[in-house]
Design a protein that fits this description.
Blueprint lengths: L8 E2 L2 E2 L14 H17 L3 H10 L6 H16 L13 H11 L12 H20 L6
Antiparallel strand pairs: 1-2
Length: 142
């Protein structure tokens, strides 16, 4: 790996740099729940998800996360082969907790989590991208 920590392609396989969880802007739990609930409600209403996510995340000074959350949540549903369930104001859903924990970790998606392998690989890349974006986001995005 180059000294600057950049990812490099080796033999056609992309190598990823591990991001220290402590370097992340803040705990993603509240942000994940808010974005997931916004996304789910838009989907259930048949509305476009990205404009709604953009509006929500603009209030938190991180509108650049709208497209990433949209992709991440789509890939979550594909990899786990079920609709993303949301909780209520008092308690997060199992899906919200799982996604938050996956974003807090630095590893790949455990094989026991994903139901569909091809989608799991894409979901893993989306998680890695979101970890990077959360690290680069303003410190007070909650």
């Amino acid at each position: 790996m180059p000294p600057d920590g950049a990812a490099v392609a080796e033999g056609g396989v992309m190598m990823h740099v591990v991001i220290d969880g402590a370097a992340a802007a803040s705990d993603p739990a509240e942000l994940v729940s808010a974005a997931a609930r916004c996304w789910r409600l838009a989907r259930d209403e048949g509305a476009a998800t990205q404009p709604r996510l953009h509006a929500l995340l603009s209030e938190r000074q991180c509108p650049m996360l709208a497209v990433a959350f949209d992709s991440l949540l789509h890939l979550y549903e594909q990899a786990l082969d079920h609709p993303f369930a949301i909780g209520d104001t008092d308690s997060p859903s199992e899906d919200e907790v799982l996604l938050t924990n996956l974003l807090r970790s630095t590893g790949r998606v455990p094989p026991c989590v994903a139901a569909r392998q091809g989608a799991a690989s894409a979901f893993d890349c989306a998680l890695c991208s979101m970890r990077i974006l959360l690290t680069l986001a303003p410190k007070d995005i909650q």
